[in-house]
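Example: Cas12f1-like TNB domain-containing protein.
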Amino acid sequence: MVEEVRTVKLNLLNLTERKSKLLSELLNVCKSAGDHLFKTAVYLEVFNKPESRFALQEVEYDHIKERFALHSQIIVDLCKDVFTACRNGGLNFFKYTIPYNVPRSSKLAETENGNPVISVATLDGRIGLPISQDGAWERFNEFLEDGYEFTSFRLKKEQDDWHILVPLRRESEVKGEFDSVLGVDVGSRTLASVTVLSKERVEEQLYFGRDVWEKQRDISIRRSELQSHADRGSSKARRKLRDLKNYESNFVKTRCYQVAHKIVKLAKQYNSVVAIEDLTGLKNARGHRKSDRRTKRMPYCTFRVALESVCKREGVPLIAVDPYHTSQSCPNCGSLGKRKQKGVIFECECGYRANADRVASLNIALRASETIHNSKRIFAQSPKGNVPVNGHDWRDWGSEIMSSHGYSPPERKPTTSIVGS
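Written out as structure tokens, the predicted fold is:
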């Protein structure tokens, strides 16, 4: 059994001034409470206290309830969010969302006229938020009819508008009539690195969407130039900045859907199940400034929504796998390796050497294959015996074998050369 996850972004109709004010106040209080919980979580880690969200909740629940007057379930969800974000390397509440649980702090309902509303808890009781009955609402209901369920959602503020982000889940069994698994690694430089893994070998490996990173880099340079003029009071520069933001957003969204269509077409060609990393919470992770900027520029959410949408429309199964060490684990021996040459090349002590994005997509495909077939598979590229170069090998050839894969331009097969004794 695997868990299928779909994310739907529901739009709200125009809210009254009172409701908008209540939600804005609640968001600010959630930010303050989250910052306080983050400091407590750091304290617990420093002083070797029990590390769990329940320990954090036990220490801070009464204090948060008294100081911030939040709904009980929202406090519980905040503790969970903070602990999860700390485990992922840090927390940033600048663009925080309000977490809700169904039915404890919210519920889906209808007005007397049959219009859909979402009832949510605030600092001043519950309020009903009218949902727009557009295409997103229709897709949401289609998912529910297909057996998906939701037990939580998040309210997100984008400029002056509010949106509902709903994760829908269902347990399903991926049937055995599929011939392969297509692993997708989403990266900062290459939007999607793809590996098609069949029972016998790697069928195809491709890179899609490197132009997205290049376009974002050029826009970032242009943005910094315009920002310097805007800081000196130029209204024209401020207008250009707004236009540039919309242009970048539209370009990224368009390319995400184009790449998603190519991936699904490839999956149908090989009769594959599509597997992607579950990178939820990625933008809350903290790293050094340069890597942090690249990470937050990754359009993971946009790409995942696009891939989910196209997969559903074309009838291709999509599963999410645990991203833990997918880019650091050696597909040959299973041990942890290192990324060299500015993170482009992966090297392992066993001698395996390959493009890092290629390794990640292969590991994702292997992990999904293990989930589907309940058996562990070790991938090795070995010129010995009767094992094909892109075949599966249960043996560990150790340091005798080294396979070298250079970095290739996007949307091309990587060139492969084998170096061995």
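The first helix runs from residue 17 to 46.
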